[in-house]
Amino acid sequence: MKEVFMKRIVPFVLMISVLLCSCGKIAPPEKSSEESELPPVEEVLVNPTEVVPVQGDDNSVGLMAFYPNNNENMYALAGTNTITFYFENKGVVPGAGKIGVYQRISSSIYTSVSMEDPNKVEIGGMDEIGTALTGWTEGTKIDVYFDRVFLPGENYYVLMDEGVFKLGSVSSGAVTNASLITFSVKGYGVDVTHMAHGILRNVGDTVSFDILVDGIGASMFAFRDFDENALTVSPLNSTSDTTATINFNQGGEHSITCSFYKDGKQVDSITFTFDVAMPVDENGNVVQPEQGGQAPAGSAEPYENPADNPDVIPDPGPPQP
């Protein structure tokens, strides 16, 4: 399952210069030889030390941006578990060490990921969200999936071990400043606890998940942009917290978008992509799906004329029970 977050992007983004000295390690502030090494990222760092980046030319993994972050209200949807890192340079890959997410209120570790776990990271090229955030048309995108979802209304910060990202022989420096990578969580979203990343599903499988509608940031959700021959979805929309289900009718790669609305306008959306195994017969041949007289893909659009105004719902009608 892949997640793509779409929202109204403002042209400002905090960029972190992850710059390294020629030996491949970040140059720290001056300190005495008696000072100990930084603790592992899993430990509680109530007063983390600020790392000062060193300016350089060809000795760094380059500029990095991240989503979500607290600049210009780029908050996370509740229930999600992904942080996306964008790099200006191509070729950046996961390294070694851990990335930890800490609860701001207690400065305690909430969840962490080992960057050596291939099931927790996904590498891609620059996408439209990254370009909107940074202005970069090329680069690297790395999605990091955590075991615990981000809770509604919570505030978090992120710390990193040295070397969690690599570019050739050069490793990224540690992030130990609790004010550098921060994000808050909205009161609405999709709980992805039971939608594990990287799962291959089968025809006939069903996935259930909770959708949160707080009535403040969002007053309604609706599913859209999916193939109704391949997916059976219930309910299609609601104005309150709901447990939704998706049944997989056909093999292949299938996407569906859950959009959130306030005062008739779309305020956020999240797209999920599921990989469903193609069914085979007793001879091992792929069984082609039957195309019946069902509704065309995306016919569950909650608004009347999306071609004219895709962000507005003139009259979504009553929600399904």
Describe what this molecule looks like in 3D.
The chain has 321 residues and is mainly beta. It has 2 domains: 10-27 and 42-186, Immunoglobulin-like, CATH 2.60.40; 199-276, Immunoglobulins (Immunoglobulin-like). It has one helix at residues 128-134, and strands spanning 2-6, 15-19, 60-67, 76-78, 82-87, 93-94, 98-103, 108-114, 121-125, 140-145, 155-160, 165-167, 170-171, 182-190, 200-201, 206-212, 220-224, 231-234, 237-238, 242-248, 252-262, 265-276.
Question: How are the SSEs placed, and which strands pair?
Answer:
Layout: E1 2-6, E2 15-19, E3 60-67, E4 76-78, E5 82-87, E6 93-94, E7 98-103, E8 108-114, E9 121-125, H1 128-134, E10 140-145, E11 155-160, E12 165-167, E13 170-171, E14 182-190, E15 200-201, E16 206-212, E17 220-224, E18 231-234, E19 237-238, E20 242-248, E21 252-262, E22 265-276
Parallel strand pairs: 4-14, 15-22
Antiparallel strand pairs: 1-22, 2-3, 3-5, 5-10, 6-12, 7-8, 7-11, 9-10, 11-14, 12-13, 14-16, 16-20, 17-19, 17-21, 18-20, 21-22
Q: Any idea what the radius of gyration is?
A: 22 Å
* Low-confidence spans: 5-15, 17-59, 292-321
Give me the count of strands.
Answer: 22
Q: Could you report the average pLDDT, rounded to the nearest whole number? A: 77
What's the architecture of the largest domain, going by CATH? Sandwich
Hey, roughly how much beta strand do the residues contain?
35-45%
Count of the domains? 2
Query: Which descriptor suits the 3D outline?
Result: globular
The SSE order reads EEEEEEEEEHEEEEEEEEEEEEE
Output the structural class. Answer: mainly beta
Straight-line N-to-C gap: 27 Å
Count of individual helical segments:
1
Write the CATH fold name of the largest domain. Immunoglobulin-like
Percent helix among the residues? under 10%
Major sheet attributes:
8 strands, mixed
> CATH class of the largest domain, anyone?
Mainly Beta
